[in-house]
Amino acid sequence: xxxxxxxxxxxxxxxxxxxxxxxxxxxxxxxxxxxxxxxxxxxxxxxxxxxxxxxxxxxxxxxxxxxxxxxxxxxxxxxxxxxxxxxxxxxxxxxxxxxxxxxxxxxxxxxxxxxxxxxxxxxxxxxxxxxxxxxxxxxxxxxxxxxxxxxxxxxxxxxxxxxxxxxxxxxxxxxxxxxxxxxxxxxxxxxxxxxxxxxxxxxxxxxxxxxxxxxxxxxxxxxxxxxxxxxxxxxxxxxxxxxxx
Length: 245
What we know:
By secondary structure, the protein is mostly helical. It is about 65% helix and about 0% strand.
């Protein structure tokens, strides 16, 4: 015996609503929208390049890479949106503040938006280890895809045209000179807690090394053009600094 048409309609609509609700719960944009007012308020006075626009760009980059590389999309997108909370305390104190120290604040934000508890630990893990570099003394210690994608997206936003703008914005906000020509570019290992003597030195100690530091094939391809653009800019900067045409 067939079901009455109204039962079929109710069953169909109920299933569609369940699917929609499940989709929203798995969609990082759903949670980013919930986080947006609070995070935007937190970053409203940030002017060093680690601002709300940086968070949005890195989130978009992580989701773009995830489409090609895989990994937990929800964890990757939300971790990207919250990865620089530690920068706020760094700005307040004027001292280096490691990402790990911001994890209690991030967990509180996640709890406030009813983020899936079984994925909170993964988000915190990504954020804790997102500032690892192969050219630092400690090197890279993690190999989970979610953290590697967050590292790639954050590093992609540090190079190219946007990277150049952010680097000089950071220098201006922290009273770092653009260049000190008599200081050699001789920093062999990179340490995030130690600032370079000038903005141009930062290109040599970190930014020029990021292209080869990418983890995923997608990020490596995206980094190539940004790296070339950045190199051309620095060459021209030095020529103009020296009064050359």
